[in-house]
Amino acid sequence: MRVKAFHLALRSISAPPSAPTLWGHLAWWVRYTQGEAALIEWLEAFRQDPPFLISSAFPRGYLPRPLLPQLQESDTERRKALKGIRYLSLETFGQVIQKGEQALLESPELKEKKAPKATLATQTRVGINRTTGTAQEGILFTDQVHWLGEREWTVYVRLRREADYLAEALAHIGTFGYGGKASVGLGRFEVVDTQEMDLPEADNPTHYVTLSPTLPKGEGYWALETYWGRLGGHYAQAETPFKRPYLRAKEGSVFKVQPTAGLLDVTPEPAPEVGVRVWEYLWAFPLGVRV
Hints:
Elements: E1 2-10, H1 19-34, H2 36-48, E2 52-59, E3 62-64, H3 76-83, E4 87-89, H4 90-99, H5 108-111, E5 119-128, E6 135-147, E7 153-159, H6 166-176, E8 189-198, E9 207-210, E10 220-221, E11 224-227, E12 246-249, E13 254-255, E14 261-265, E15 279-283, E16 286-289
Helix pairs in contact: 1-2, 1-6
């Protein structure tokens, strides 16, 4: 599949950016730079026929491990090592979607322990007195953050129509940060490179793996999560700043029928503004797999 890759240098983050989070920030970018009428038109396009599909972010050169039927392994150490692999290089991913998890046995991710990991760490910050500009005694905050090392991460976009604004919009999002901890400096990144490239797909696929969260439907191999999201932009200060929770299939989930999904109405009660509906991006980003 031909895609455009945006390579990001991430700093301290509360979580790697998911496709719905990035799309939500793109929506606010459209609202603040082009106005409400442009946002309504932009949203309507995604409700009917999305101009592009966007993936979650993954370590550069890697994709999420497809959730295929697990390999039966009797050796305890190797079974534990297999279980811990979350990301596959593009080459190993191409082997696994064609031959199944058997291909992992000879992969660098298992034999040389090369699979990248995002480790959790703690970050402590102090409260600042707004009058004196000095640290307040006894006011400390401790946050959990993902430590990503020096590795770059990549977001893939499958363009269905021209969207020249993406590089500018993503750069804007990276400057101000994404997610709930952006106000204290988390979630910032720099777009360091862009690239036209092909993602691997299986010949004559029987199933499809998604690179973005989507709604579970039909048969397949899923990892599910309940998502409790917060409103963004100036709606973050609304009376009810949380979106309506919902159940979604994580990145790497595999479906027998090519998934599509779409936008999900997650408007809270009460709505942040009379007549406003809040949408969550849940279009799948499918790649063909043989099971």
